[in-house]
Amino acid sequence: MKYISTRGNNQELSSAEAIIKGLADDGGLFVPDTMPKVDLPFIGELQQLSYQERAVKVLSLFLTDYTREEIEDCVNRAYGNGKFDHKDIAPVNFLKDASVLELWHGPTSAFKDMALQLLPQLLSTALKKTGEQNEVLILVATSGDTGKAALEGFRDVEQTRIMVFYPDNGVSRIQRLQMVTQQGGNVAVTAVKGNFDDAQSGVKAIFNDREFNTRLHEKGFSLSSANSINWGRLVPQIVYYFSAYADMLNESRIKLGDKVSFIVPTGNFGDILAGYYAMSMGLPVKKLVCASNTNNVLTDFLNTGVYDRNREFFKTISPSMDILISSNLERLLYHITGNQAQVAGWMKELADCGRYDVGAEVLAKIKEVFSADWSDDNATKGMIKKEYDMEGYIPDPHTAVAWNALYRLKGLDNPVIVSTASPYKFNESVLTALGKSIEGKDEFQLLDELATINSFGIPAGLAGLKDAEIVHKNTVEKADMPKSVLQFT
Ligand SMILES: *Cc1c(COP(=O)(O)O)cnc(C)c1O
Fold first, then answer.
1. Does ligand 1 have an atom closer than 6 angstroms to the CB of 421?
2. What is the CATH code for 92-107+232-459?
3. Checking DSSP bridges between strand 306-308 and strand 355-357, what pairing results, if any?
4. Which DSSP string do the residues of 146-174 spell out, in sequence order?
5. 94, 239, 281, 473 - which has most CB atoms within 10 Å?
6. Is the dihedral of CA 191, 196, 201, 206 positive or negative?
7. 321 C-alpha to ligand 1 centroid (Å)
8. Confidence bin at 61 (pLDDT 50/70/90)
9. What is the mean pLDDT of residues 281-303?
10. Ligand 1 mean position to 273 CA, how many Å?
11. How far is the CA of 264 from the centre of ligand 1 (A)?
C-alpha cells in the first residue's frame, strides 16, 4: 500500500515515510491509495482477542511496510506496561440508553492518549526502517492537553526528543503541574511569556526558519510535529471502532453483521474520520454522528455543503472542540470524491477566503454516512446532570455534547457514544453542572469533591500531581524560544 497526497502531486510513499514526513510537499495530507477491506469473519475473530491483538490485526492492513513483529512491538509499548488504568484499554461501558466507548483510560485521562501513545513508537520504528540517522525533535505549542499527552507518548522513545512550550498564563494549575513534573530523559518543557497564540506563533516561526533548520540539521536533528494531521496519529484510532464492535458482540448487544451508530464529539475531525475508515473497510456502521459545541462549523457543513470559517469564535466548556478549521475533513473530501484537483481547489478557497462549497452531489454522498448536531454549554451541562440522575454516570463536557446528539437525532441503531475525556479533567464544569458550589476551592479540592459522588476514583496521573517534584522551571520570552531549542539539542 502506498500513501499519496490528498492534493495530487505524484509523491508515493510507504507508511513509514509518510509518518516521518507528516505533511505532503504540496501541503496535502497523506492518505492510503487503496482502502483495505475486511469481511465479517475477520470482525468476528476480534471478539476473543485483547485490545493489543485487535490493534495488530487492524494496523497490519495499513502499515504494510512494517513487519508483524515491528507492529507488535509498537503496540505493546504503547498499550502495555500498565500505562492505561483499564485492562481493556478502550472499554465499552454498557448503560441503558447507550453503550459508551471510553477512550480516556490512558496516562493523561483523555482520548489523545489513544493516538499519542502509539505515534511515537511508529515514528521511532520508521526512522530505523528507513535508515534515518538524524534524531527527530518534536516541537509542540500547547494550550494544555495535547502537550501533556505528547510528552507522555514520546518520553524515552529512541531517536526522539520532545520540547513543549506552554503559555505561562494560559493553562490551568493542573495542566501546568502535569507538564512541569514530566519525567523522561528526552523531554523539555518551557513556559512562554504571553498567551497560546504567542507560544504557537513562536513554534511556527521556528519551523519556517530555514537557516535555523539547517543549523539543527548540522547538529543531527530534524524538526517534526505531533499534530493530528500525521497519518501515524490517525491510524491508531481506527482500531477502537473495531474493538467497540467486538465488545458489543461479546455482550450480545448485537449480532455479527448488525449495524451500529457512533456519536463522536468532534473538533479537528480526526476521531470521527477514523470511524469512516473503519466503515469503509467493512465495519457495519449505520451512521457516524458529528457532535459539535457552539463552534458548529461542521454541523453547518454537514447539513449544507458549505464550509465557512468566517464566524465568531466561542470559548466553551468543551475546549478541545473549540476549533474553526477541521484539518482532517480534507481526507474525507478526498475519499468521497477521489478527485485531488477538486480537493486542492477547495483547500485553496479555504485558505484564501475561509469558505468553500462542495455542491449538492458531494453533500448527498456525505449525508449517506454522516449526521450532525450541536449543543451549547447550557444543554451540555443539562446532559451531564441528566445522565448522572438517570444512570449515575458522569460524562465529561465533550462526551455530554455527543449524548445530546443521541437524544435529538432519530434512527441511530445500536448507538455507541464515543467518550473522549474523564470527567476529572473538567471537574469545575462538571461540578457546576451537578449544582455543586465551586467557590473558593482549588483544583485539588474539586477533584476530591468529584470523587465523593463519582462511581470511580481520581485517576492516578492526576491524584499524584500535588506532591510530584517540579523538574521544568524555565520561562522564556517568545523571542528567545529558538535559543532554548538550541540549548536542548
Ligand atoms: C481532541 C479532542 C476532541 C476532538 O477530537 P478530534 O479528533 O479533534 O475531532 C474531543 N474531545 C476531547 C476531550 C479531545 O481532547
1. yes
2. 3.40.50.1100
3. antiparallel
4. HHHHHHHHHTT-TTEEEEEEEETTSS-HH
5. 239
6. positive
7. 6
8. very high
9. 98
10. 12
11. 9
Q: Is the CB of 375 under 6 A from ligand 1?
A: no
Lowest mean pLDDT among 21-30, 237-246, 264-273: 21-30
Give nearest CA residue, ligand 1 atom 8: 268
Domain ranges of the chain: 92-107+232-459
pLDDT digits (tens, 9 = 90+) for 213-243: 999 999 999 998 887 889 999 999 999 999 9
3-state helix, strand, coil in the chain (%, to 5): 50, 15, 35
**Residue to substitute in 398, 401, 417, 419 for testing ligand 1 pocket (most ligand atoms within 8 angstroms of CB):** 398
pLDDT by residue (tens digit) across 352-396? 999 999 999 999 999 999 999 999 999 999 999 999 999 999 999
* β-bridge partners, 370: 288
Mutate to test the pocket of ligand 1, among 320, 384, 401 (most ligand atoms within 8 A of CB): 320
How far is the C-alpha of 18 from the C-alpha of 258, rounded, in Å?
35
Select from 216, 367, 372, 215 the least CA-distant residue to 292. 372
